Amino acid sequence: MRCDKCNANIKENEGRELHGQNLCEDCYMDRLSPAKACDPWAVFSAKSFSKGDGTSVAMTEIQSKILQILKETGGAAPGIIAEKLQITPSDLEREIATLRHMEKVRGELRQGEKIIHLW
Ligand SMILES: [Zn+2]
What is the dihedral of CA 9, 12, 15, 18, to 10 degrees? Predict the structure, then answer.
C-alpha cells in the first residue's frame, strides 16, 4: 500500500484512511491537525523505541542541499527553498516527503505559513 499524498510505502497495519485516501501516519496527522504545534521530542522518543536499527539511507545531492539550507536558515518556507535550489515546488514537495520519512525534516505552521525545518 502506498500513501496517496507523499507516495511512501505504508505497512499494512500503519495505513490510515481519511476521506477515501490511504495516508501514512505523517500525512494523516498533517491532514487532521495542520495547525497543531509539533512536539518533536514526544515523537522522537516514541520513534526511537520502535526503531533503532541504525540503517543509514543515502541522500541525493538535492536532499543534502535542502538540509544545508535549513541548517543555515533555521527553517524556511517551501517556496523559498525551491527558489534557492531552482527546482519546481512539486519537485521540492517530493524531496521533502522523502526527507520527512527519513526523519530529517519536519513541516510546521508558523503564523499560518508552512515552514520546513530540521527534525
Ligand atoms: Zn504520506
Answer: 120
